Every structure is written in C-alpha cells, then in structure tokens.
Amino acid sequence: MNQYHVLIIGSGPAGLFAALWLERLGVDKIGIVDRYPYPAGGLLNDGKLNFDYRIGIDLDELQIDRATAQGLMEDIKRILTGFPRCRQVTFVNHTKKIQELQEIAREHHAQFIAPEQWHWGTDNGKAVVDYLRGHLKNTDFLLGMEISSITQKGKGYCITGKSDQGAVAFTTKIVLAAPGRSGAYWFRDVAKQLGIEHNFGPIDVGIRLELNRKFYDAITDVVYDPKFIFRTGRHDDRVRTFCTNPGGRVRMENYLQFKLVNGDALSRRKTKNTNFALINTIALTKPFSDTTEFGQMIAKQFFLLGGGKPVVQRIGDFREGRRSSVANFDSTVRQFGICKATCNATPGDISLGMPARIMDNLWESLKKLDKIAPGILHPSTLMYAPEIKFFDTHFPTDRDLETNIPGIFVAGDGTGKSRGIVGAGISGIIAAQGITKKYFEP
Ligand SMILES: Cc1cc2nc3c(=O)[nH]c(=O)nc-3n(C[C@H](O)[C@H](O)[C@H](O)COP(=O)(O)OP(=O)(O)OC[C@H]3O[C@@H](n4cnc5c(N)ncnc54)[C@H](O)[C@@H]3O)c2cc1C
Q: Which CATH architecture has domain 2-85+120-200+392-440?
C-alpha cells in the first residue's frame, strides 16, 4: 500500500495549486488522486480568469483580508498568465468607458464590476494542464482512480477506491479534499461518516442567455465577462450575470440524473453569438434547508420536460406566453434566424420548470439589462434552462482550511471555499500553507 504525507483528492486548480505550494514549502510524499485519466478538473473549460477579490473569492469564508487575497492572486497570475496562449481580454485602465457603464448601470439600479480578465479558451485546456503539471516535480499523479471512502487509521487516514485494474488503497497523514462540484455530494457523505461538520450554503439557479453578439459587443468589447449585479424590487433577491462568452457556444453538462447548461469559447474559432448566465442566489431555511436537493429537483424537472435535454425558449415566444416549438424555432417571419442556437436543447417553456419567484427575478433583471444594453431582448434571443451552480455544502474550517477533524483539510468549489479557477487556486495555496505550518514544520 502506498504511503503519503499528503494525499489530495481532486486534480482541479485547487488540488494542483495546493501540490505546487506543498512542493515549494518542502513537503515530500505528495499524491494527487483523480477519477479521470487526465488531471485537470475544471481547467479544461474555457479558462476565463478574473483577477478581482470580489469575483469567486469570499474573504470572510477564507478568513483573509483584501491585501492577502491580492498577494495570493498575484502568485496565481504569475503562473497562469505565464502560459503563452493566455491573453489579457479586459484592461482595467479603460477607465472612461468602464465609468460610463458603471453610471448607466447605477441609473438602472444595478452594480457593474469590471475586473482584470485573461482567457485561454477551451481549445487550449489540455496545453494549460500540461504546462501546470510541468511545474510539479515530486508529486505522484494517481489517475483513473475513484475514491469511495476515507477512514481513520492510526495517526492518519486510509483512502480506498477503485480503478480499471481493481481496488486501490493508500495511507496518508493528511487529506486535502478538493473534489470540485462534481464530487461535492460524495464528499458530503464521507464527511457525515467521519463527523466533519458541514451545513448548507446558498445555490445559484437561473438560465443561460444566447444572443446575436452584435447586441452585446458594445459591452463585451470593453469588459470581456461583464458582471452586473441586480437587487430585485419585488423579492429583494440578488441576481447577477456570470460567465460571459463572446463568440462562444452553449454547452451541456452531463450528470447522472439530469443535464445542466453552461458556456465556453474557443480561442481560434468564434461563433456569431454571445452567451452568459443570469443566476439568482437562493438560500433556504427550516424546515427544508438542503439547497442541493432543491437544485436537483429543479434540474430533474427540466430533464423530464425536455425529454432528457435542457429546455430552450425564444424571448419572442416567452413574451407572448407560448412555448417554443421545433416547427417555429427558426421562423424567419418572427426574425428568429438572427440567432442560431449553438446547443441542441429541446424547444419548450422555461416557466413550466422554474419556480415563480426565480422566474420573476430573472425577468425583472433582464428588462433592466435590456435598458443598459438595448437589444438583448430581441425576439430571437434564446433562454436555456437550467443553469445551476451547486456550491452548496459549506464546511466550517479554521483559517488554514482544516476541518474540525484534525488532518482533514478542504479547498475549492466543492467544499464552498471558492467559485472559479482563481479562487480555487487561492484556497489550495492557503490549505497547503496551513498543512505545512501545522504538520511539517519543525
Ligand atoms: C463549462 C464550464 C465552464 C467554466 N468556465 C470557467 C471560467 O471560464 N472561469 C472560471 O474561473 N471558472 C470556470 N468554470 C468553473 C471552474 O471550472 C471551477 O470553478 C474550478 O474548476 C473549481 O476547481 P476545483 O479544483 O475546486 O474543482 P474541479 O476543477 O472540479 O476539480 C475537482 C476534481 O476532483 C475529482 N474528483 C471528484 N470526486 C472524486 C473522487 N471521489 N475520486 C477521485 N476524484 C474525484 C474530479 O474528477 C475533478 O477532476 C467553468 C465550469 C464549467 C463546467
């Protein structure tokens, strides 16, 4: 049985940056395990990088101040933007145009954030991962191995799972769980067995809009991935734009019992469309606070309505209260041809699957956004559902990201410590520093 000092579960940005920092700090016998044969996690997707402490980083959750976040972000930036095909797409020194947009947004009761942004594109994903992996000299990659259990053994832990070749088992002094969103549910079960404290955080539920890019270029030419934040009048809820892909495509994410929508862009081949997510943050209280279960119920409902695929509806149909249909989907009479769908979803009725309060909030925000960027509500614009971000199980930790069970640390999106590549990397570094300080420094 292989024995490690630190075993990291998950080879996404949280796991990779943790390994990188552990090596730098002189820790040896490090392993990264991942269920897939290629180490990467979400690094293979799109690669928009937001360098702003307000995006994807929760200072309170990480128990760091702005200056510390800024310092860690610089460390991550030095490494990620060192990849030769990563290019800067938003320059914060475009101050005049950004200020104008901030003012227009304010007039419509919205907040506008313009972070420094870089992008490599999905077609460069594998090259980025190879580049990052090249920074790691002494870490074992244990790939194609799905971990099922973590149990206490002596002063450390025994980790077991399976691979194509059969059962696998390792022992380790320290576990760093960075399983991402796809492993969040699994880790929650393991946490229950180990007595790791956890509770439910909010989730983001909404839609992805796809429109002819000419309606949004005036904004995305200034800020590649613009962040508009709305407070809705009727429910006082928070709705925001997220993950904008100029010239991009809408993509399906496959889960066992449902499908979600997402979006990305290639660096070399652009479409005529832009897509972005519009999501509503939802927190639940007693008697039902399990936001994962709630999100999954919504996702399954759309899965049923769409016959196993997400649902898509034209704004023109939505406004008139009718479902979209295959027969009329590209109707030239109704000017639907102006936006050709890039994702094969089922034409239908979004409002059948979306809870009324969320639908209200999304529509109210869209109408405001249409005043800031006139034309986005053209009849041809597409609304895909569901777009759901499951960042919902929250693990209380100390400032080193150690849970209440000594020797078990957490990082990344799946444990509520980040939302995005840069934030996940930052949480991985904090955990690595904490592990070294507590367990490996003389
Ligand atoms: C289509 C799409 C586009 C995106 N675009 C962007 C973007 O442009 N910019 C951005 O900042 N973010 C983007 N994201 C989000 C980004 O991918 C995540 O925020 C980030 O990858 C989270 O990093 P992580 O290390 O926490 O987890 P992940 O990157 O998800 O890595 C977790 C890893 O853990 C492994 N794992 C889980 N459970 C187990 C287990 N039991 N055994 C073994 N291995 C396990 C998984 O296989 C996975 O490889 C996008 C996501 C998607 C889906």
A: 3-Layer(bba) Sandwich (3.50)
